[in-house]
Amino acid sequence: MAETNGAHGEHDDGSENGHYKTFSGAGFGTLMVRMASGPKETPPVASTRAYLRNGLPSLYQDGDFGMRFVGALEELLDPIVAVLDALPAHFDPNHAPRDVLELLAAWLGVDLDEAQELRHRREMVRRAAELGRRRGTVKGLELALALHFPGMPLRVEDNGGVHWSGKPAPAEPAAQSFVVYCDKPVDEPVQAAIARCIEQYKPVHTTYRLRVKSAKKKVES
């Protein structure tokens, strides 16, 4: 919001809705700006901080040419310092650029699918730690399927079981198995991708079956 009047000078005015600053000058009206970010302000650029100029010996700070020369170098550092100021956001899955997001995925051992939308790839990286903790469990497999195939109706059916015997256990116990259902007809390449995901995240020494809903046959008229 902005208001103009004929007042001169500069003053601050606090309010419940935000912080206001009033600026004025000769020949200009007063501009009232509401700071939407609240008490947090944008970090000043390198040339405003005057790191290099303030680091010079006092003998060189008295010279106008030297200060202007070093000030020009500070302006060259502005883009670099701006990246350093925003470095935490570069490694945040919610804001990271695409190349950095792929780097984060490689660090975390997550295989991103380039065919997915960017928001789904960000979700994969954001929940990589949870996926790693649940790896090899039913919940972990369900989470992996939900992240790799968002919006696809996939469900895991695992009845579990307990084996006991009063005699020595058999040398080769029966393999445990589970069933993954896809309640939507999908093409063979998608079926193969689902099978690869199951192989990667299923519990070890278990077998599975993938059942995909068949497409409805067209009725000939």
Which characteristics define this entry?
221 residues, alpha+beta, Histidine-containing Protein, Chain: A, three-stranded antiparallel beta sheet, 41% helix, disordered N terminus
Describe the structure.
The protein is elongated, with a radius of gyration of 31 Å. Among the domains are: 40-85, no CATH class; 90-126, no CATH class; 137-160 and 176-216, 2-Layer Sandwich (Histidine-containing Protein, Chain: A). Helix 9 (138-148) packs antiparallel against helix 10 (188-201). The model is unreliable at 1-21 and 23-37 (pLDDT under 50). Strand 5 (176-182), helix 10 (188-201) and strand 6 form a beta-alpha-beta unit. It has helices at 46-49, 51-55, 58-61, 64-85, 87-90, 98-108, 118-126, 128-133, 138-148, 188-201; strands at 11-14, 19-25, 28-35, 154-157, 176-182, 206-212. The chain is an alpha+beta fold and 221 residues long. Helices cover 41% and strands 17% of the residues. The chain is built from ten helices and six strands; from the N terminus they run E-E-E-H-H-H-H-H-H-H-H-H-E-E-H-E. The protein has a three-stranded antiparallel β-sheet, with no helix packed on it. Strands 4-5-6 form a three-stranded mixed β-sheet, with helices on one face.
